[in-house]
Amino acid sequence: MSTNAPAETARVRVYLPTCRRPQLLPRALASLRAQTFINWVCELHNDAPDDPSPARLLAQLVDPRITLVTHERNLGGTATFNLFFQAPAEPFYSILEDDNRWEPDFLATMLATAGAHPAASVFWANMRVAQEQADGSFRDTGRTIWPQSVGEAVRSFPWGQPQQICGALHSNGAALFRSQPGQNFRIPVVPFAVIEPFRERMFPHPLVLVTRPLATFSLTLRTARSRDAAEWAEMQAMLAATFFLHCPWDEARMAQVWSDARARRPTGTTNFILAALAQPECRPLLSHARWGDWCVALRGLVRRPGLYVRIRRSRQVHAAWWRFLEQHTATRWSESAWKNQ
Fold first, then answer.
1. E runs forming strands in the chain
2. What is the extent of the structural domain holding 247?
3. Secondary structure class of 247 (helix, strand, coil)
4. How does pLDDT run across 296-333, given as a tens digit for each residue?
5. What's the total number of domains in the chain?
6. Please, what is the average pLDDT of the chain?
7. In this structure, what DSSP letter does residue 6 have?
8. DSSP 202
9. Judgement on whether residues 169 and 32 belong to the same structural domain of the protein
10. Is the per-residue pLDDT at 229 higher than 90?
11. Contact, 105 vs 31, CB < 8 A?
């Protein structure tokens, strides 16, 4: 258990965002204060200015390493997270979301990993998955975000992984970032569900994964993520289109990516078809589509008749988002080893 004494020289600044979840915040704070590495400081960001519970909790804890930042107005998840991605004075920074928790050796292990990989800037750990129950307790599902493998403590990922076509590799709630002067990973104010894939398009690669679960990702009954299925489909199409726009993969590699997407449940090929509809330069993607892929995509369009129009208008309606993704994705591909293959 760590002491309550302030660190003489903090090495890590921890950002802890919270918004009206007084039943979850104590669990997250307890996991932070239980860290075996004690030279950290924490900014607790309260995004509900009229909620006094975070201040009351800190008054009870009396831990000088933790300071409260109460927002003047509710910023929402994406704008709040943007506050955290401007390099602090400390050598490293991390984010502990109020519904997650860390194992006691999370910070110690992540810092040791960063020390062993000085060329990398972004590190994250595997996470256990817990499900919130009706009574407020959490049940361990027995699952982890990443499969665990014997003998592989760390994995390094260059840019251009299939998971990055529509998603992200890293998890905000189990990540450690190396702070560098002038660094700024602010993203446009996009739906909260896609902040990780948008921001990952900015990160210098490789990214480094610690395969041991060092944190718990909580599936809560209340979430900031939108339930708008059409919005999610539009975001997936945007991510896929900008990924493929500068992608140097040959036909054999593309065929394999389609095959792998076809084997997933639910199938991922619809995202590729929607990407081709949204970005004319991605139309060659359709040469790999089969009748079964088209049937699945068309069923989705029939269920959401406005989706086709939404996808086609996306480049005009969300022009800034498209420009952001196109710019940073092109940069990632220019740095990638794939460009020489």
1. 12-18, 40-46, 66-70, 92-95, 101-102, 122-132, 138-144, 154-157, 175-178, 207-219
2. 229-340
3. coil
4. 999 989 988 889 999 999 999 999 999 999 999 999 99
5. 2
6. 92
7. P
8. T
9. yes
10. no
11. no
